[in-house]
Structures are given as structure tokens and as C-alpha cells.
From TrEMBL:
Gene3D superfamilies: Vaccinia Virus protein VP39 (3.40.50.150). This is Methyltransferase. The keyword Ion transport does not apply. One of its GO terms (molecular function) is methyltransferase activity.
Amino acid sequence: MRKPLLSLVAALAVTACATTPMGPAAPPPPPPADAPVAIPANIIAAVDNPLRPEVDTRRDADRLPAQVLAFAGVRNGAKVADLIPGTGYFTRILSKAVGPRGHVYAYVPDELTKLANREPAVNAIAADPAYKNVSVLLNLLPNFGAPEKLDLVFTAQNYHDMHTPLMGKPDMAVVNRRVFQSLKPGGVYLVLDHSAQPGSGLRDAEKLHRIDPEAVKAEVTAAGFVFEGESRVLRDAADKRNVSVFDPSIRGKTDQFIYKFRKPAGAR
């Protein structure tokens, strides 16, 4: 089950030390996927931002934005793309987390705006003086890119949609490669989505709005990314992953994976 955000989580830290009688010390093993992550002050302040609408804040207990963005490594001054931002739930938080020296590019696929036949919801955020560091980018999904190299490309509950007619079923090899090219060496690609049953691949992307995490890992690493790890803060074993994420029995409580991929430091 998901763990609620603790008020003192920023003070949490896990330390370990070890010595060896001879030879160089072995590198420490990676922390467990469900290990506590210290929440930086910039992210705490961004989540606590009083300008956030109530429609967003009442979802925080289910979405755990502080833990998610801490795992992504969002820092002051970062250049970030919010890929398919929807109503801008994470766009607002990212804006305050990166601060005035950073920038958030809300990338809205033209395929989606044409289908919806209305302007993107995030346009209102970009027009708000409180979010001066937000820009909206409109383009076809395969043409993903930004005016400058990025530290992070973030997409939440959308990767599965890119495999459906909703987004025009773009060639994901092209999309992921464009994401790779848009990042600085060492940059992060964070994918959060509703999980499908193991071995289901892309089968449930359109009907259930879910995707097999291993299918995502295979596609993203094929573009040159290194899989760095998973956060399990949104995992929920009570979800059998056999109904639509919009089903009243499970909506807002789905089992979700958070995968972190990194562009190698030496890559161009």
C-alpha cells in the first residue's frame, strides 16, 4: 500500500559505512526501490505552494508528488519538459521546484489538441504571472524537442497513451530517441504510468489505459538510455491490473510504476 507523505520526511536519511581489511572498498549496493527518499526544500515548497488549486491539492495523497519529484531529482535551476502535461498538475509544481533560474516546457502534442478541438489547459498556467518560467510547446509528438538542452523529461500517466490512436500512435522508437537527443548528457527521463499485468506488453494500452512496465523499459533503453531504478511509492498490490484505470472500483488507486532512465554522461 502507498505510504503517506510524512511532515518530517525531509529530515530522513539513510547512512551506512563499511570497511574492508584489504583492497578498495566495494561500491555500496543501490537502495531498495521502496527506501525513503529525502525530500529537498525546493520540492517541499513547490508542493506547499498556496497558489495550487484545490482540485490539484486534494489529489496529493494519491499522487505523492513530493516523493515522485524527489526521485526524479528536480533541482533549482533545472530545465524540464513536462511531456503531455494534461491540466498541469505537475507543471505547476515543477515550475516552483525549478525556480526562476529554471524553466518548464509543457509539451502538448498537436495530435491531442486537434482531437480535443480546444486550446491546451496549460496555456492558462503559462499566461499566469505566477508561473513566468512555463512555456507551452505545440508540435507533433514525433517531433519532440525544446529550445535548449534539458535536465529532465518527465511524463506522468501518459506513456501508454502514446501507443494509442489518441496520440496518433507515433513511432515510439523515434519519440524516445528525440527525448534522448533533447537531454543534456547525464539527463533524466522519468516515466510514471499505470501498470498492466506482467507479460501483457502493449495489449492493454488503449482499452485499460495501462502498460506493462517491462515493455516501457525495453523501448526506452533501446533508445540509448540506461535504466537507473524504480520508486515503488505508488505501487499498490490491491490493484489486480485487469480493469480500466477509470473504473470506479480502482480510479485514483491504481498500481503505478515510476521508472528512472538516464542518458549516459558521455552521450551526445
